[in-house]
Amino acid sequence: MDHGTNHAARLEAANHALGNSINHGHLSGAEIMEALDAWQHTSSGGLNTNVENLRSQLQNGDKLAAAHTLQQLGEEASHSALNLHDGFGDQLRHLGQLLVTAAGNLKMS
């Protein structure tokens, strides 16, 4: 299943940017949404509802609710990647790990 090299590169760049924000301790709602927007049209419809919930939670400054939603999204991404054994699956797995990490960081901030 080829999702196109440009597409894969964009997803990898989105993951990389999100990972850098997490690693340098300046994770913001805008950076989380930027990464998720890059992924949005590649994922199952289920992600979209949570992404919209997350957007409003971040805009309202509701960090605990946003952390909970990020955790769900991370688990969903990891679960969706289980049967994908290509570059796309690798990026999706990486996104899942990043989102769970971001959820933990939000809870502590």
TrEMBL record:
Name under which the protein is recorded: Uncharacterized protein
Lineage: Bacteria, Pseudomonadati, Bacteroidota, Cytophagia, Cytophagales
Domain of life per record: Bacteria
